[in-house]
Design goal:
Layout lengths: L17 H5 L5 E3 L13 H10 L6 H16 L3 E5 L2 H14 L3 H6 L9 E5 L8 H4 L4 E5 L15 H7 L4 E7 L8 H11 L3 E4 L9 H7 L4 E5 L11 E5 L1 H9 L39 H16 L2 H18 L6 E6 L6 E6 L7 H10 L4 E3 L8 E4 L8 H14 L1
Parallel strand pairs: 1-11, 3-4, 3-5, 5-6, 6-7
Antiparallel strand pairs: 2-8, 7-8, 9-10, 10-12
Helix pairs in contact: 2-11, 3-11, 4-10, 7-8, 12-14
The structure holds pyridoxal-5'-phosphate.
């Protein structure tokens, strides 16, 4: 039972909270760490580290250099940097691939006139986070057709098609890492390497497994981004950018406050090597997604806790919560609950029969309208299925969810 005290299961806080004072409803989050539902619940140690960081001032470049060394150690990359999220990392990483260490180009972004301004991407990997890539001023060149969709086809994009799309205008290949992404990353890296083009990997939600912190770098990615506010349980507005030292340096130069005097400016050489620059750019295209000292310290603390926690303990604590919901649903009419154990995160799947008094859409609507509102995963509503994810549940939440579902389906 000592494991039940594990930090993956935060206690349900006392009634009077900052949200009560603001008149904002606290929700039960059975969807998982989504941005619209305010990300992860921070372990106490992370929240305390952030509060402590807030009590003194430091030079942000020095703090980022220290963070970079810790991230490099955790990921196996040459260099690391804390961003305000994975999407911010995509913007910074793309900008770095376009400008490299040229401060004139940094000043001109997102105007990419005269620069390599195309980013090659597999068509089936397009998604709305690539707004962040396009925000650097580049155009996305799509490759391949995922013709499995037709029912007759058997292919997605292939490595030779990526090679075919690379020209002297190509700044980078952008790759979205999922277990089902094709071609596999090592094949993409081979094509990119032959052409001297960097590969920028979106691995925002690819944790757990913790092993993925190192995997994409090991497979040859030049830059990788992760969310800080998902499974890492860091601040909602934090993320990791890691990879080649020169590219991380180019990213930092377009992110940091550069109202500096060249002679007085002495950034840590591990982060920014002044000797490689003819001069400093001004504020760059990444300046609007700045990161505070509190987020940097919070992310580092969360990363340390994530790596220290036994993955079996983490998974078992999630599984216990899902099983508790499933147990509470036994005997509920016209619905069947199933614990899905295949993925990295165990889930609860509730499938509604035709005779149920609410359809899946109606049920989700009622859950959200209740007090407290309960948010579930609604990605499979059209199949009559709702899902619960345990990552943001507090101690009392599983029982509350099961009770509410029973009430709604029995009433
Ligand atoms: C969550 C997510 C992002 C955005 O991450 P933030 O840390 O919220 O910026 C980007 N790409 C993918 C695939 C994601 O799942």
């Amino acid at each position: 039972m000592i494991q039940a005290q594990d930090s993956t299961e935060p206690e349900t806080p006392a009634m009077s909270s900052i949200y009560d004072r603001l008149g904002v409803r606290v929700i039960v989050n059975a969807k998982g760490p989504a941005t619209r539902l305010s990300g992860a619940i921070l372990p106490d140690e992370v929240a305390q580290a952030m509060a402590e960081a807030a009590q003194a001032c430091v030079e942000i470049a020095e703090l980022q250099a220290t963070a970079g060394a810790i991230i490099a150690e955790a990921t196996g990359a040459e260099a690391g940097y804390v961003t305000s999220g994975a999407a911010a990392g995509l913007l910074l990483g793309t900008a770095a691939c376009v400008t490299r260490l040229d401060p004139g180009k940094m000043n001109r972004l997102p105007d990419t006139g005269g620069m390599k301004a195309e980013v090659v991407m597999v068509r089936s990997q397009r998604n709305f986070y690539d707004h962040a890539v396009r925000a650097a001023g580049v155009r996305i060149v799509e490759v391949g057709i995922a013709d499995r969709f037709s029912g007759a086809g058997v292919r997605d994009a292939e490595a030779w098609e990526l090679a075919d799309a690379i020209t002297d205008r190509t700044a980078a290949i952008h790759y979205v890492a999922q277990p089902w992404s094709r071609p596999i990353l090592p094949e993409v890296v081979r094509v990119a390497g032959a052409a001297g083009i960097p590969v920028l990997v979106d691995a925002a939600a690819q944790l757990p497994p913790a092993e993925n912190l190192r995997r994409f770098i090991r497979e040859g990615a030049d830059l990788v981004v992760f969310s800080g506010g998902k499974a890492l349980r860091g601040p909602q507005a934090s993320g990791i950018l890691c990879g080649r030292r020169d590219l991380v340096m180019a990213a930092a130069l377009q992110h940091l406050d550069l109202d500096i005097d060249w002679h007085l400016w002495s950034p840590p050489p591990a982060l920014i090597d002044k000797a490689r620059l003819p001069g400093a750019p001004h504020h760059g295209v990444g300046r609007p997604c700045k990161v505070g000292k509190e987020e940097i310290v919070g992310l580092l603390t969360a990363l340390r806790l994530f790596l220290a926690q036994d993955p079996v303990v983490r998974r078992n604590s999630w599984l216990a919560q899902i099983q508790q919901i499933a147990a509470g649903l036994r005997g509920v009419p016209y619905a069947s609950a199933r614990v899905v154990e295949e993925g990295e995160v165990p889930l609860l799947e509730l499938a509604l029969d035709a005779g149920a008094r609410l359809d899946a859409l109606g049920l989700v609507e009622q859950l959200q309208r209740g007090i407290p509102p309960i948010h579930v995963d609604h990605a499979r509503l059209s199949d009559g299925v709702i899902r619960c994810n345990p990552m943001c549940l507090r101690q009392d939440d599983p029982a509350l969810i099961a009770r509410r579902l029973c009430d709604l389906l029995r009433a």
